[in-house]
Design a protein that fits this description.
The protein is 31% helix and 18% strand. With 174 residues, the chain is α+β, with helices and mostly antiparallel strands. A hairpin with a 2-residue loop joins strand 3 and strand 4.
Amino acid sequence: MLDTTTRIAEETLGRLKQPSAVRFIRLGQGGTWAEEAIANGTIPFKYRNVAHAPCAAGNWDEVRRQILASGRKQGALGGDLRELRDFYELDDHCLWVTIAGGHLWWAFAEGPAIASNEEGEDRPMRLRRTLDGWHSYNLQGDPLTVKALSSVLTRVTAYQRTLCKVGPDEYLLR
């Protein structure tokens, strides 16, 4: 993984004071994109059953149609739509977190979701760029090792989908 002493931008410090939302995102199946995403300062998201254009346009009726046309069950539709909407609609003040390499990593997105144009079933279909990269330390410079974190926070890794709310925010943001 990267050197964790990367300087935090002033704008990032401002966003940390009151993020608009907090979301956990799994960086690829089993974290397979984590090293690359952290190195490149991106937040990747696969979901190949739906084209980028209707998501970017906020055409959620078309997204729903594409999800169902891909063979997904009605029971999965709500979760699929929620994840896609969160990825595309959450603003740049949403705090994104992931767990990789024994650390909790955090970042803020900068700008809208874009198509990744990568080939291959195992590659992300869309991504967001980060404001100033992924960070694996707190504001005091201490590493955010998984071993040192409460299981209230780390249990999010057991979540079976890609993207979810994280709680409690108070623990994460102190």
